[in-house]
Amino acid sequence: MKINIIGAGPVGCYLAYLLADKFEVEVYEEHSEIGKPVQCAGIITNSINSVIQIPPEVILNKIKNFEISYKDQKLKIKLRNPDIIIDRTKFDTFFYNKAKERGVKFSLGKRINDLAELKGIIIGADGPNSIVSKAIGNKTTSWMGIQTKIKLPDSQIKASLDYGKFGWTIPEGNGTCRVGIMDEKENAKQTFKKFTKGKQNSLQAGLIPKYNPKNKLCKNNLYIVGDAAGMVKATTGGGIIPGLKAAKVLANCLIKRKKYKRKLRKVRKELKTQLIARKVLDHLNDEEIKKLFKLFRKEKNKKILEEIDRDNLKKIAIKLLLRNPTLITYAPKIYK
Fold this sequence. Notes:
The protein is an alpha/beta fold and about 325 residues long.
């Protein structure tokens, strides 16, 4: 049986690599060059090592110091395991080369406009505007992410809650930082301008899909994974690790003929937790945010944030709730 994967990003290529020993696999990519254009902040947590070991040459920096701010409030934490700043083009190329070595066929510069031209199983790893997701019957919505590079002598990752959903400063090293924001599409350009104070170099921008737990993941011979399935953390907009985890699940399901949605339960629960956290954050007032900062600055809570990375938000939430039962008072925000 032939498997057709639309999209040669890291998730599509990783899935192709995992399936190549059991199926004939071909990957279609509308762009002619792997890893370009770059539409990613390029930061991942240490949880990547639970999925795959990435080579040193794709890593630009590793940082443990993390600062979260809102107006006059600051929370400084030191991560037990550093966040990893990647060269996104080299990162994508790493997965592409692994798939090529397994014999996967690639059709670069090939845009699929009609799924009827493909025979066999069709998997959409084709981003927020996935043609496969639409064919399954899903309706998708997205935020916008915009980023630039600015010369800044920073040695810590910064997340500011004052701008849109949040703004970030990510040190690449050598005095250069990636500076960007995530916000609703209609507000993103103005938010970005305010956050960067007009300082802009080359711009990188892209849609960040909103996770919808009600969307279907498969129908007949159609499947979706990664950004095409909205598998993005609603708190931070990061989708690399959830997408790679889902690719591993889907590959196993296709090889062993298991139910994809059922086996994806763990990934879906984490994404649902991230979505709940986003809903709460979006409905907090100034006083409530200040109270949270005060709570998280307590040593017992700060330690949880330092020891468990944000790709395991469900685990963080459970531990925080057990130690701080008053957090349950924020639950009504979920339903607003």
